[in-house]
Specification:
Distance between the termini: 50 Å
Bound molecules: adenosine-5'-diphosphate, zinc ion
Shape: globular
Number of domains: 6
Helix content: 25-40%
CATH class of the largest domain: Alpha Beta
Largest sheet: 7 strands, parallel
CATH architecture of the largest domain: 3-Layer(aba) Sandwich
Strand content: 15-25%
Oligomer: single chain
Length: 732
């Protein structure tokens, strides 16, 4: 009998624990290293991965593998090493790590036949000629960006009717052809001459690439300084050396312009990996990578595991974004995985941001592990926008009870008169958000999640965590008063106020509610860029990556929402958000202006964002963190206990607390603090209670050591309570 060693992605006792199964005759010679299989496990069947063959284990009663699911998942020896590294770095099980890297299986895949699609016969430069036919112009623009769609698809993507597409076909601007897969290659764009700062960055990083020195670069470039062009040139260099590239963006649906720029440069060599793809599509993209057809991967967090034979460069754009950290186990950070993979391949890592994470900037100081490159100027000497701060307390005191300050209304009406575009930013969705009792101050919360419910326009209160919905109660649940009203505001309300103030203009809104359908971001953007809408109202989605030259005014309705988050990173998040939002203004010829409204106008994160002064913000923030002994001056591990019975949850936390304290004593690591048990930031999600313990200390390895020792004694589950571990958590 042949035996296989299988790693399974379920809670197991020790992190490296694997299980032995017999290989049935039919599978002998079929199964390979890393094959995905189905195996019996505690009375059910689950997926697992073969990680070895060989000796029969010491015990009897060995069960057989039930079937092979996938012979060759996208895993190789190098990625297997990454999985092993993840186990000791994030204290997840080996099975979980492999599962995360390999992604979900696709079963048997049907190969699609070549389709017919519409291909433009002209280039981007032709678009100007369609200025008087805006609908056709938008449709052609979409076709240039996504050649190969059929008539219906294109009409849908361009938010228009098939008649408009027919008109383009009749004019000979679109042609229906059989698709070959190389359509993208016909529309490669021109390369601009690099600015001086860009050239220096490209030279330095290319040099490291040539010398095959694994290295990490922090590209700190102000918004609009042309970081993307630096990425493109370095990738070109890597491709020239017959290597491949990975480019991570925070969320691909939010960065259609980035995708377009990559396709214009690298055509069909670009593979996209993101969550909006179907499993089959993702599989097809990965297959293109493995067989060398595609060599540049553009994707969100999990694209860091792209199966590439020899990556030369890994780029992480907006490296400070929290979406690079996965919030379920394994709670990995793509930046760290990037560094680990790069070391294996002697590749370079480029971390780009206008507002680097405090931790990253810390590592880029002289003598640190990253090397710092600055882009201090915007391309074409464009100026940074002027930022005004409005004190909302004063507005209120002087009798203005509206959402907008007088300064903002004045600035907006000027823009409207001049036919320039404006963006209004609100870090929230929903109509008027939280409902409070004006008598006793009680906030109406979700009965399952302990989170404030949000009032939507249909009159329903909704929980943004679990989706629970209810009507506004007649009486306050706490004091029975009937003065329960909404408080705060949402994007819909902002949109309506603008329409009231300026009834004749067109306003667009972009938030989670208006962008549920695939491609809806792009559609809204097209409407805003190409259409006659003058104002775009939106949530954090509009803060990132948008490059719209016509935008000359950006308004921030309230900076306070982010500032008052209960987290030690609140100031950092506020600075990042304000800087990113402000970066959307004045990217064209006309100088931009930003107006930030707040009740806390003296806060350093707001003042430094006003000055576009990252470095002084960094210094001030570091001083605060040092005083309070927060990262990067300490490391934190969060251990979360969750279950339906609060008593069980608490006793699990208690048992862990005792074991941790005992282990701390035995290992002589007295410089580690153990905090808690405390209710987690959100105490209850989906009817599960959540309590947490925090470990804090000066050496990350020591923290992981203690937790590993206790894990080996207690396991990942304790009675009915799930224990989940977060190394370097982003929120607490
Ligand atoms: P960042 O990512 O740093 O905010 P972008 O990469 O979006 O900046 O670049 C800003 C704008 O400048 C884009 O429209 C881009 O096409 C343009 N750009 C970048 N580099 C150059 C260059 N060397 N010459 C001319 N235009 C450039
Ligand atoms: Zn809820
Ligand atoms: Zn009340």
């Amino acid at each position: 009998m042949l035996y296989a060693e299988v790693a399974v992605p379920v809670p197991v006792r020790s992190l490296y624990q694997t299980f032995h199964y017999g290989v049935p005759e039919a599978l002998q010679g079929e199964l390979k290293m890393f094959s995905r299989v189905e195996v019996p496990f505690s009375g059910r069947f689950i997926q697992g991965f073969v990680i070895g063959f060989g000796d029969p284990p010491a015990f009897k009663n060995i069960k057989n593998i039930k079937r092979m699911i996938e012979r060759e998942p996208f895993l190789d020896t190098e990625l297997y090493k990454t999985a092993q590294w993840m186990v000791q770095r994030y204290l997840c099980s080996l099975g979980d790590a492999i599962q995360t890297i390999a992604g979900s299986s696709v079963g048997s895949l049907k190969i699609e036949k070549r389709k017919k699609g519409l291909i433009p016969t002209v280039g981007n430069d032709f678009l100007i000629g369609l200025a008087r036919a805006p609908k056709q112009k938008i449709a052609l623009e979409v076709a240039l960006r996504q050649p190969g769609l059929n008539k219906q698809e294109l009409a849908k993507e361009a938010n228009t009717s098939p008649a408009i597409i027919n008109a383009l076909i009749d004019k000979g601007l679109l042609k229906e052809t059989e698709l070959t897969g190389a359509e993208d290659d016909k529309y490669l764009g021109p390369k601009p001459n690099l600015t001086k700062e860009q050239a220096i960055a490209v030279t330095q990083i290319s040099q490291a690439l040539k010398e095959e020195k694994p290295s990490a670069w922090l590209l700190h470039g102000v918004t609009g300084s042309g970081k993307t062009e630096v990425y493109l040139r370095i990738i070109e260099e890597a491709l020239g050396q017959n290597r491949q590239a990975i480019v991570l963006v925070p969320e691909i649906s939010l960065t259609p312009q980035m995708v377009q720029r990559f396709k214009l440069r690298f055509g069909s060599q670009v593979a996209l990996l993101h969550s909006a793809l179907s499993q089959g599509e993702r599989y097809a993209e990965k297959a293109r990578l493995r067989n060398g057809e595609a060599r540049v991967v553009l994707g969100a967090r999990s694209a860091i595991f792209a199966p590439l034979p020899n990556p030369g460069v890994i780029i992480i754009d907006e490296e400070h974004e929290s979406s690079y950290k996965q919030d379920e186990s394994p709670k990995y950070h793509a930046r760290e995985v990037a560094l680990q993979r790069a070391a294996q391949h002697k590749a370079v890592v480029v971390l780009g941001s206008a507002t680097p994470a405090i931790e990253s900037y810390c590592r880029a100081r002289p003598g640190g592990p990253y090397q710092l490159i600055r882009l201090t100027k915007r391309v074409d000497q464009r100026k940074m926008p002027v930022v005004h701060i409005v004190d909302l307390r004063k507005e209120f005191a002087s009798g203005n009870k509206g959402i907008f300050s007088r300064l903002f209304i004045h600035a907006l009406s000027e823009r409207i008169e001049k036919n320039e575009k404006s963006i209004i930013f609100l870090n929230r969705r929903g109509y008027a958000s939280v409902v409070v009792c004006h008598h006793c101050g009680q906030v109406i919360k979700c009965p399952h999640c302990d989170i404030s419910l949000t009032l939507h326009k249909d009159g329903l209160l909704r929980c943004h965590y679990c989706g629970y919905g209810s009507r506004i109660p007649q009486k306050c649940p706490s004091c029975a008063s009937s003065v329960i009203r909404n408080f705060g505001l949402g994007t819909q309300r902002v949109e309506e106020e603008i329409k009231k103030l300026f009834p004749s203009i067109k306003v667009l809104r972009m938030d989670a509610d208006t962008t549920t359908r695939k491609g809806s971001h792009q559609k809204l953007l097209d409407q805003f860029i190409g259409g006659d809408a003058q104002v775009l109202v939106g949530t954090q989605m509009i803060a990132k990556g948008l490059d719209i030259p016509q935008v000359t005014l950006v308004g921030v309705v309230s900076a306070d929402i982010t500032l008052h988050m209960p987290d030690f990173r609140a100031a950092e998040r506020t600075f990042q958000l304000l800087t990113q939002v402000a970066g959307r203004a004045g990217r064209g010829e006309i100088e931009g202006e930003v107006i930030i409204q707040t009740y806390d106008p003296e806060h350093y994160s707001i003042l430094h964002a006003q000055q576009h002064d990252f470095i002084h913000f960094f210094q001030k923030e570091m001083a605060t963190r040092r005083t309070l002994y927060y990262p990067p001056f300490s490391f934190i591990i969060r251990i979360m206990f969750s279950g339906v019975n609060e008593g069980d949850v608490l006793s699990a936390a208690q048992v862990w607390l005792e074991r941790l304290s005992k282990t701390r004593q035995e290992t002589d690591l007295s410089n580690i603090d153990i905090l808690g048990p405390a209710p987690a930031g959100i105490t209850r999600i989906n009817d599960r209670y959540r309590w947490q313990l925090l470990l804090r200390g000066p050496v990350s390895r020591d923290l992981r050591k203690i937790v590993t020792l206790v894990l080996e004694q207690l396991g990942i589950r304790y009675k009915q309570v799930t224990v989940s571990i977060d190394v370097d958590p982003l929120t607490i």
